[in-house]
Design goal:
Bound molecules: ligand C2E, calcium ion
Radius of gyration: 29 Å
Number of strands: 16
Number of domains: 2
CATH superfamily of the largest domain: EAL domain
Helix content: 40-55%
Strand content: 15-25%
Structural class: alpha/beta
Largest sheet: 8 strands, mixed, barrel
CATH topology of the largest domain: TIM Barrel
Distance between the termini: 120 Å
CATH architecture of the largest domain: Alpha-Beta Barrel
């Protein structure tokens, strides 16, 4: 009897042990899953891919492509709509799986980025086709209720062994290839030695830029370009930054501003030019022309800065410059990034009399109704719309459409890049109030501006 009872309790103990062991295994499996899979997409995470890649390279694999796919700025716009974002991320994952194979798709450490590998690639053309398919698939419209949310992606790929001797080089070179899209119009790049060279040249320029900024903005100065009314009277000017890099020479603003944006230096540079331009206009208003105004460009990165409005108000107070003397220029790209937040900031700026201008109007993709609801005073018509005036009929039609829009929405208009009298006369005839361009002068140093235009 006693033996029977002992046997039974032993069996129960064993059962209990098994249950506990199973639970523990389940627990471990769950923990592993949590550790290795991304909770939103269900994909395996980067560290697992790195382990796999490492084994593949050590195992002497013949050819391999490693790629990074990063969702674009339109995705950044919706990233704060958290629930929709999760669904869209999941949908995107499902779209990508058939193209590279489920087992080859991984989640990066960033939530807006996927990583993938393609083993035994036969040709560059094969990789290009997959990149192409991914770009097209990601950009396809979504089903309701997300049909209003579209975004695309950029892809960078490096090939082994063509572009890399080891894992580190492979990963870095794919990252370099991904970075190149910003300067080109295409969105998918395979690494090449030329791409690498351009990247390292930029890096050294960025190093110089940082050094000069820290060295009290060495080599920086501001050029001013006149803005005239329909009677060719100077009413304002645009402050444009210049940088003569020591030992290199003049670097184009597009280049160094792009670098400053990428590296976060733009906030320092933007503050520097604001103080310079306000101090200059203050001097001109008190010593020469009481109603002179100055326009300062704001980069999209600056617009995202939390204390931007504070920074501008402080500059106005410190330098005692009224809002009426200041125009701020921003691009459609910047406006559309985070419309609500930017709209609030612009309204605050307008409340102190600052005028807001939309730069390069017509080159972005913002909808007219969105612009109409936005706190904007002036549209700056981009140079490309005036280049072929007055002879090109299509260009003329385009300008008429733009002018009719500005009348409907009651925007002030300023045409940029006007180089000759025939363009000037036509734009004034079509109702454009202000003109900027080589017809009056290219941007010049403050001293020259004063001598030529403020005597
Ligand atoms: P943007 O704001 O569109 O500035 C106008 C550009 O057109 C200037 O080029 C100006 O020199 C040029 N331009 C003006 N009139 C004519 C013309 O009649 N013909 C031709 N061919 N060009 C004309 P710039 O100074 O090289 O500046 C290029 C861009 O760099 C600017 O374009 C702006 O986006 C950026 N940038 C310059 N300074 C600053 C700055 O202080 N902050 C920021 N965020 N961006 C700046
Ligand atoms: Ca501008």
């Amino acid at each position: 009897m006693q033996r029977e009872a002992e046997k039974k309790s032993c069996a129960e103990l064993l059962k209990q042990c098994r249950i506990e062991r199973d639970l523990e295994r389940e627990h471990i499996e769950q923990l592993e899953k949590l550790l290795n899979h991304d909770p939103d997409t269900g994909l395996l995470q980067r560290h697992i891919l790195m382990r796999r890649l490492s084994k593949l390279l050590e195992g002497g694999c013949e050819t391999l492509a490693y790629g990074i796919l990063r969702l674009d700025q339109n995705y950044q716009r919706i990233r704060h709509i958290r629930d929709r974002m999760k669904v869209l991320l999941y949908v995107t994952t499902e779209r990508l799986k058939p193209i590279v194979g489920e087992e080859n798709l991984y989640q990066s450490d960033r939530s807006d980025e996927f990583l993938f590998i393609l083993e035994n690639v036969k040709s560059r053309a094969e990789v290009e086709k997959r990149i192409n398919d991914m770009i097209i698939k990601v950009a396809e419209p979504h089903n309701p209720p997300a049909s209003d949310l579209t975004f695309g992606c950029n892809v960078g790929v490096a090939l082994y062994p063509e572009h890399a001797r080891n894992l580190d080089e492979l990963v870095i070179n794919a990252e370099i290839a991904l970075g190149i899209y910003e300067e080109k119009s295409w969105h998918g790049f395979i690494y090449s030695p030329e791409i690498g060279e351009a990247h390292y040249a930029n890096q050294s320029l960025e190093y110089n830029l940082r050094k000069c900024i820290l060295n009290n903005f060495e080599g920086f100065h501001v050029a001013y370009q006149p803005i005239v009314n329909s009677k060719k009277e100077i009413v304002a000017c645009e402050a444009l930054m210049r940088w003569d890099a020591p030992g290199i020479g003049a670097v184009s603003p597009e280049k160094f501003i792009g670098l400053a944006e990428k590296s976060g230096l733009i906030n320092y540079v933007g503050k520097w030019i604001l103080y310079k331009a306000l101090a200059q206009v203050k001097r001109w208003r008190t010593e020469r022309k009481a109603d002179m105004q100055v326009s300062v460009n704001l980069s999209p990165v600056q617009l995202e800065q939390k204390d931007l409005v504070d920074m501008i108000f402080t500059a106005m107070d410190v330098l005692k410059v009224p809002g009426e003397a200041i125009h701020l220029e921003l691009t459609e790209r910047a406006v559309m990034l985070n419309p609500e937040d930017i709209s609030t900031k612009l309204k605050m700026l307008q409340s102190r009399g600052i005028e807001i201008m939309l730069d390069d109007f017509g080159t972005g993709y913002s909808s007219l109704s969105a612009l109409n609801n936005f706190p904007i005073n002036t549209l700056k018509i981009a140079k490309e719309f005036v280049d072929n005036l007055p002879d090109d009929k299509e260009a003329l039609e385009m300008i008429r459409v733009i002018m009719s829009i500005t009348r409907t929405f009651k925007f002030t208009t300023l045409a940029e890049g006007i180089e000759d009298d025939s363009q000037f006369d036509l734009l004034v005839k079509e109702g454009c109030q202000f003109i900027q361009g080589y017809i009056t002068s290219p941007p010049v140093a403050a001293v020259e501006f004063e001598e030529r235009f403020l005597k």
